[in-house]
Amino acid sequence: MSKVIVKNGDVDGAIRNMKQKNARDGLLKKARERQDGYEKPGVRRRKAKAEGIKNTRKRERNYR
Question: 48 falls in which pLDDT band (50, 70, 90)?
Answer without folding.
Answer: very high
